[in-house]
């Protein structure tokens, strides 16, 4: 099963895309995703109307929609799945500069997973992964090793570090637009199909996942350009 772990909609300040546009793109692709994760910057939506929209889109397009959040920590961006009421009680996920180590530990304790995003691009995670792993142990089990908006070198560095430290390498498009140069560039391949974010967390925590590259006909674009 393929899942894109890192997608932004108009709920993020740097995107203007309606979630339906992504589902339409998936439906047209020859290798469709089984699930898409909306990971808004510093926002985990809890509004009933958003959940109703996601449920309707999921049923209409036959694609699971999971909610996560791209949190802002003192070391950089952190993808979080398995957000619970306790996690929201202990942390203001809308705020900046959350303490990375504390967040990762609490997420793990709640049964979720926290994944350093693009650790070698605009991030302090990459150079600290050895140190973090020594402190956090199994609470840090995976990194976003392939990001669709990274350079090839940044992805290679993350893949090499994941192999060196025994971390599970994952993939996500980091899409802010639904166009071909942003979306359906890369994803994560799971060994088993999942139907809920809880099941997704189980598979990612168990390491039953790897990056997946979609076939590309066009050259990578420069980050920040919509094409």
List descriptors.
227 residues; alpha/beta; TIM Barrel; 7-stranded mixed β-sheet; two-stranded parallel ribbon; 24% strand; globular; disordered C terminus
- Whole-number mean pLDDT: 95
Low-confidence spans? 217-227
Shape: globular
- How many DSSP E strands? 9
Biggest pleated sheet = 7 strands, mixed
> What is the architecture at the second tier of CATH?
Alpha-Beta Barrel
CATH class: Alpha Beta
Distance between the termini: 28 Å
The helix/strand order is EHEHEEHHEHEHEEHE
The third-level CATH topology is TIM Barrel
Q: What fraction strand?
A: 15-25%
CATH superfamily: Metal-dependent hydrolases
- Widest β-sheet, arrangement of strands: 5-4-3-2-1-8-9
Structural class: alpha/beta
Describe the structure.
With 227 residues, the protein is α/β, with parallel strands linked by helices. It has one domain (2-213): Metal-dependent hydrolases (TIM Barrel), CATH 3.20.20. The protein is 32% helix and 24% strand. It contains seven helices and nine strands; from the N terminus they run βαβαββααβαβαββαβ. It has helices at residues 19-28, 48-61, 85-90, 100-109, 129-136, 152-165, 197-206, and strands spanning 2-7, 35-41, 64-73, 76-81, 113-116, 142-147, 168-172, 186-190, 209-213. Helix 6 links the parallel strand 6 (142-147) and strand 7. The two termini are 28 Å apart. The model is unreliable at 217-227 (pLDDT under 50).
List the helices and strands and how they pair.
Layout: E1 2-7, H1 19-28, E2 35-41, H2 48-61, E3 64-73, E4 76-81, H3 85-90, H4 100-109, E5 113-116, H5 129-136, E6 142-147, H6 152-165, E7 168-172, E8 186-190, H7 197-206, E9 209-213
């Amino acid at each position: 099963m393929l899942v894109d772990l890192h997608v932004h909609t108009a709920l993020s300040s740097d995107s203007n895309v309606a979630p339906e546009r992504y589902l339409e793109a998936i439906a047209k692709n020859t290798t469709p995703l089984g699930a898409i994760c909306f990971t808004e910057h510093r926002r985990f939506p809890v509004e009933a109307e958003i959940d109703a929209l996601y449920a309707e889109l999921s049923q209409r397009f036959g694609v699971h929609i999971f909610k996560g959040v791209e949190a802002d920590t003192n070391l950089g961006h952190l993808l979080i799945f398995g957000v619970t009421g306790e996690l929201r009680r202990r942390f203001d996920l809308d705020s900046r500069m959350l303490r990375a180590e504390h967040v990762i530990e609490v997420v793990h304790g709640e049964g979720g997973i926290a994944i350093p995003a693009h650790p070698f691009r605009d991030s302090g995670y990459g150079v600290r992964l050895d140190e973090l792993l020594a402190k956090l142990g199994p609470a840090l089990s995976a990194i976003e090793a392939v990001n669709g908006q990274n350079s090839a070198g940044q992805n290679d560095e993350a893949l090499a570090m994941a192999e060196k430290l025994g971390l599970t390498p994952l993939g996500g498009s980091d899409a802010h637009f639904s166009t071909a140069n942003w979306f359906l560039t890369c994803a994560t391949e799971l060994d088993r199909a999942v139907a809920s974010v809880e099941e997704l967390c189980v598979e990612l925590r168990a390491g039953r996942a790897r990056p997946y590259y979609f076939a590309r006909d066009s050259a990578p674009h420069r980050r920040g350009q919509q094409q």
